[in-house]
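Can't paste images in this forum, so I'm doing it all in text. The chain is below; anyone willing to post the predicted structure tokens underneath?
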Amino acid sequence: MADLVFWKRKTLAQMSQGEWESLCDGCGKCCLQKLEDEDDGTVFYTNVVCQYMSADCSCSQYQDRHELVHNCVWLKPEDVENFYWLPSTCAYRLLSEGQDLPDWHPLVSGDPNLIHAVNISVQHMELIPDNSLPEEQWQDHIIDNQ
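Text version of the structure:
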């Protein structure tokens, strides 16, 4: 069993901070603004993105993001039951649902750029910074659910 990779032998709660952070595939989808239907809880993704998203799908203010963006979500193992809003490709969601990581995931492929090459990330999308569009207009920018 020791030869199994950490995500196959540990629960999300058992992972070290470094292991937890390494699960992020760098897709940038969690930084897309989302709208939730108040009646049925359906989550809709938009092409409106946090103003701090860099061209490489990383956060330009990662260390200070929670102070700068009041609704920036901090993914923690104890919140795993609330990961329904994460994209279906997200490692945190996949593992919380008992699934494995896909072949393109950087931990599996060894290539952090493969996610962009196979168009899983938001890098190929036309994105609108959230600070350039009133929130009332975000619903006009709903994209296919992720």
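The longest helix spans residues 17-22. The CA atoms of residues 75 and 83 lie 8 Å apart.
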